Amino acid sequence: MKREKQLLKGNYAIAQAAIEAGCQSYFGYPITPQSEIGEYMSEKMPELNRAYVAAESEVAAINMVLGAGSTGIKAMTSSSSCAVALMQEGLSFIAGDEIPCVLVSVMRGGPGLGYIYPSQGDYYQATKGGGNGDYKIVTYAPSSVQECVDLTYKCFYVSQKYRTPVCLLADGMIGQTMEPAVIGEYPYEEIDQSSWALDGAKDRKPRFLASIEREQEALRKRVVKLFEKYNKILENENIFEKYETEGAKLVITAFGSIARIAKAAVKKARKNGLKVGLFRPILVNPFPEKLVAEIAQKVDCILDIELNCGQMLQDIKASISSCASTIPVKFYGRPAGVMMTVEEIYKQIENVYKEIVEKKYGTACI
Amino acid sequence: MEQLVYKKPDSIKEDFKISFCPGCDHGNAVKLVAEVLDELGVREKTIGIASVGCSVFSYDFFNVDIVEAPHGRSMAVATGVKRSKPDKIVFTYQGDGDLASIGIGETIHAMTRGEKVTAICINNTTYGMTGGQAGPTTLIGQVTTTTTKGRKAELSGYPLKISEIFKEIDGTAYVARVTLDSPAAIMNAKKCIKKAFEAQIKGIGTGFVEILATCPTNWKMTPQEAHARVRGEMSEVFKPGVYKDKVSEAK
Q1: How does A301-333 read in b/e, with b if 16+ C-beta sit within 10 Å?
Q2: Which is more confidently placed, B234 or B18?
Q3: pLDDT for A252-302, tens place per residue?
Q4: Taking CA atoms, what residue in B is nearest to A214?
Q5: Does A317 map to a domain?
Q6: Around A298, how many Cα atoms within 13 Å sit in the side-chain half-sphere?
Q7: Which residues of A touch B63 (CB under 8 A)?
């Protein structure tokens, strides 16, 4: 693997990082805007004597991942929006079975078939899930090609360490963007899976991996254990970006590709003397409520920006109400179609700043 | 002098408790699969896939590693296991509702890819666990809780003949339909199950056995009447026999 900086497309960066991370089995079905991942894997995995299977559907793909993950190896699939919808049943089982695996979800526009434009419309799908029962899919959202690499590594590590499905939540813009990135070495320790993985009951009792639990108390305990795990992940594996939040009167919250554009708008605002910062959760599920609450206690307003009709917004609002803060939460967003520009976001910042901050402190604040 | 005439197979757990209804063929089917695993000496490297329905409880009986699949997805899960661990012996144990209805897509495509796995399907022409509703294999005229006047072709189509379909798939190496209604039939079923595992062990392709099985509880019959039904109207529609045998050809 080349270690120097190279011009890489987001989808290829994810695929190369997965191989570098030691992904042993890939199962997938084509869908734009992530088909390059499956194409790359179809060639490279057999070369490395690893498994690639062109699944007949996303339903089959996620269940192949379930089977592969049950043997303790690193397994993954990749897909998008209406096809990730088909995987929800399998994801619920995988979470309940406590099987490690990685799902790469490269969002496109919806609902239904929507279209291939970049979108953040599947924040709910990733973080609230469509599968049944009390569970979470741990989710990291990259905002650059380099982060596609680094977070793919993180996804494999967290999935193996905590025996849980982990989602890399990208979108069509990140998947299709070409920019310089480095495929570094996989930076995490290998986690021994031999205490639970299925490899044949030789010199030991047979193992049974399942979500079924026939005793009432055992079923309750199983779910409680899952949530203890999610708390640990939030405590130990949380990643986020804070930019110019110190002394800010207005903080922008955004994730993924939009956060990157918002950051450029924040830079411009700072240059013009507006006390504006950015908070970007990278781990979006479990959601870093406390961090948002801390920020809310120090600022006069939060402006949430997303390429959807306000999905992470609900997590932001819940975080703020958890600390009994009453600061206004403004939202700027729109469904998939036209990407936002720096100028457009800057105008929103300026408007909100005038409305809330200058009203409170007068123009002296600027 | 004591003489050992029968021994529980090693591939059946020591502390198992049979939870199937009296007269149900699941018990015999599980035993035959276990005996075959013993005889082939593969128990310690076998990974089973538990499906949904009465067959879900196979993990209570089989003394092997088992992973649970969502309803119908066993052959996809089996694919994932086998492709990741090609040296393991992988089998699914599914009902006809699981394999032939909700899971027919996963089953046909796994066979089309020629996955080196073995699938055992218990066909009792009904959804047993949920109380005897009509399924894809329900016979014309059969009374169930959702066909109270008997299955009518013009309303709900015809029984699906899976072995006849699977024999046409290039990736299958062995396809047979058996019954368990007499000692001779049971001996024959065991031979067929063994061949279906040999198809996998020899790397020829997918091995498949469809077992025509009783469901006295939902059929509202005595065990004897239920076996008579298997021999009679069920065997007339679903003809028992070996439909494909690339295992013997390979010898």
Answers
A1: bbbbbbbbebbbbebbbebbeeeebebebbbbb
A2: B234
A3: 999 999 999 999 999 999 999 999 999 999 999 999 999 999 999 999 999
A4: B57
A5: yes
A6: 16
A7: 201, 206
In this structure, the answer to whether residues A230 and A171 fall within a common structural domain is: yes
* Pick from B62, B66, B84: CB nearest A71: B84
Of A212, A236, A260, the position where a domain reaches its end is A236
Of B64, B79, B109, the CB nearest to A67: B79
Tell whether the model's pLDDT for residue B233 goes beyond 70.
Answer: yes
Element (DSSP H or E) covering residue A152:
helix A145-162
B45 touches A: beta carbon within 8 Å: yes
Query: Which CATH number covers residue A171?
Result: 3.40.50.970
Of the candidates B50, B66, B81, the beta carbon closest to that of A68 is on B81
pLDDT confidence tier of residue A365, bands split at 50, 70 and 90: very low
Question: ipTM score here?
Answer: 0.96
Q: Name the pairing type of β-strands B241-245 and B172-179.
A: antiparallel
**Is pLDDT of A3 > 90?**
no
**Residue A208 and residue B59: Cβ atoms within 8 Å?**
yes
List the helix and strand counts (H, then E) for chain A. Answer: 14, 16
- Provide the shortest C-alpha distance from residue B49 to chain A (in Å): 9
Alpha-carbon distance A86 to nearest alpha carbon in chain B (angstroms): 13
The CATH code of the domain that includes A319 is 3.40.50.920
Please name the fold of domain B26-250: Rossmann fold (3.40.50)
Contact yes or no for B84 and A211 at CB 8 A = no
pLDDT one-digit tens code per residue, B152-200 = 999 999 999 999 999 999 999 999 999 999 999 999 999 999 999 999 9
Its domain, for residue A290, covers: 241-365
Please check whether residue A1 lies inside any domain of the structure: no
Give the C-alpha separation, A118 to A175, whole Å. 9
Name every chain A residue with its beta carbon within 8 A of the beta carbon of B80. Answer: 25, 27, 53, 63-70, 75
Do residue A21 and residue A137 come from a single domain? yes
Instruction: Please indicate, yes or no, whether residues A132 and A210 belong to a single structural domain of this protein.
Output: yes
Contact B73 A90 (CB under 8 A): yes
Three-class secondary structure of residue B65 per DSSP:
strand
Q: Total domain count for chain A?
A: 2
**Same structural domain for residues A218 and A95?**
yes
Whole-number average pLDDT of chain A: 96
- Whether B77 and A25 lie within 8 Å, measured CB to CB: no
Are A240 and A281 in contact, with CB atoms under 8 Å apart? Answer: yes
